Amino acid sequence: MPPRLPLRALPVLLAFAALAGAPEAALARKRPPPPPASVQPPVPEGQKLVVVDADGDDVPEVWTYYADAGPEVRGPAHLLRRDIDLNRDGRPDIVAFYDGGRVQREELDLDFDGQPDQVDVYEGGERIRSEVLRPGGGVVQVRHYEGEDLARVEVDRDADGSPERVEYWRRGSIVRVSHDDDSDGEVDRFSAI
Ligand SMILES: [Ca+2]
Ligand SMILES: [Ca+2]
Ligand SMILES: [Ca+2]
Ligand SMILES: [Ca+2]
Questions:
Q1: How far separated are the first and last CA of the chain, in Å rounded?
Q2: pLDDT tens sequence across 147-190
Q3: Nearest ligand by distance to the CA of 108
Q4: Global pTM value
Q5: What is the C-alpha to C-alpha distance for residues 143 and 169, in angstroms, rounded to an integer?
Q6: How many angstroms is it from 103 CA to the middle of ligand 4?
Q7: 25-27-33 Cα angle (round to 5)
Q8: Greatest C-alpha distance within the chain
Q9: Contact between residue 3 and residue 50 where contact means Cβ atoms under 8 Å apart
């Protein structure tokens, strides 16, 4: 089995393929200026870095780190981390960490400002949790998944670790909401939405 790319990266990679065949003038319009070389992090000791420039513009979009287990070993079992630049500004926007060929954690920079906005946590290859970060740090929302389905959303507006609102979801709809109106950590009431 090849190592799994994050699913949401696929449309972007397909877009790269489409762009690769686009007229050069169109590419030039869409391409931001290249970033400073310092954006590329140093390769940790004991790891190997494989860089992919999918559209051939000499600016890589995918950086893959492997455990350095020998001169030719780059299999899924040695995959440690993959960084993907979605908007082609030279900075990774998805940083995915792997263990045993399976993704464990993804850090997503959805607004391309260089700071992660969401962290997805995986177990057994399935996403079990998404944490939404506010600018500057702090988790303001945690979405819990069971299988493919959203099961619970915890909204913690002040990011103090105690949610003010917890939504319980079933088959794509909210079935119940608990509210902690005075933020003392105790549920004060339940409602339908
Ligand atoms: Ca490129
Ligand atoms: Ca980027
Ligand atoms: Ca961001
Ligand atoms: Ca709170």
A1: 43
A2: 989 999 999 999 999 999 999 999 999 999 999 999 999 999 99
A3: 3
A4: 0.76
A5: 10
A6: 30
A7: 110
A8: 61
A9: no
